[in-house]
Amino acid sequence: MENQGLPRTMVIVIVSLIFLVLFGSSIFYTIEPGEKGVIFRKFSGGLDKEKIYEQGFHVIAPWNTLHIYDVKINETFEKMEVLSQNGLSIKIDLSFRYNPIHNKIGYLHDEIGRNYVERIVKPEIRSVTREVIGNYLPEELYSTKREAIEDEIESLTRAKVGPKYITLDAILIRDVTLPLTLRTAIEQKLKQEQEALEYDFKIQKARKEAERKQIEANGIAEFQKIVNRTITPQLLKWKGVEATQEISKSPNSKVIVIGNGDGDLPIILGGDSGQ
Question: Phi and psi of 54, rounded to 5°?
Fold first, then answer.
């Protein structure tokens, strides 16, 4: 009996090893950080769009399939040739950052699939970019309104891919290539505009300085008028009397002649400081 039990155990072990070798990759799954999974149950309902498998180790029946999605924010670069408002061909380099909506990857897998970037994101970005840039002139894209154009492309594209379970994080216009003659003309125009702004600034500064000096001069003139109205002959005579009284108190010898000065003020002729 013991001799019969040993072979049976070995058979079980061997069969188990063969099973693991053949189906191990279909049973054991590891979901890495930044990934999520959705399961397809072959014999019980098909794709389970609601259940999301989080990161970690999972054991799945070999007849089922676990589809793993990268849900981190990824960046893709795209080169395009578009037409401006005046029909000029413009080459642009842009990049976009995106990721699938985490709790909707079951619906994304069911309706679109893994290649959602090529099937949805890129075509929508190309379409919206051509539509938006077609409303602007080359110089606006090249310099003055690039940020506004980026925002408009991003907003319109986000509205299109959002219902398809995709999050658009950002769209960036990295480079704009114009024909050399046009680029030179635009740069020259921008330089002239900058010089004009600097000239206007200098004029404004000089005008404000002149206004400041005028205000200062008016203030001084007004002050002088007030002083002139305040200092009357009677006030001067009174101040002269006060000054004479103070001098008379001095210990130094002096001669005071009463009533012979201007305005009948006393005249101090002198004194001997040594006495």
Answer: -85, 175
SS3 99: strand
Query: Beta strand pairing status for 56-59 and 28-31?
Result: antiparallel
pTM of the model: 0.59
pLDDT (tens digit per residue) in 151-182: 999 999 999 999 999 999 999 999 888 767 66
The residues spanned by each domain of the chain are: 2-70, 74-178, 185-230, 233-270
Tell me the torsion sign for CA atoms 152, 158, 161, 166: positive
What is d(CA 238, CA 241) in angstroms, rounded to the nearest whole number? 5
For residue 270, give the H/E element and its range. strand 267-270
Distances (CA, A) of 274 to 90, 234, 252, 253: 101, 36, 8, 8
For 75-106, how does the pLDDT look when each residue is reduced to its tens digit (9 = 90+)? Answer: 999 999 888 888 888 889 999 999 999 999 99
Q: Which long-range contacts (CB under 8 A, 24 or more apart) does 215-220 make?
A: none
Nearest to 154 by CA among 143, 169, 166, 140: 169
Q: According to the CATH classification, is domain 74-178 in 3.90.1530.10? A: no
Residue 50 pLDDT level (bands cut at 50, 70, 90): very high
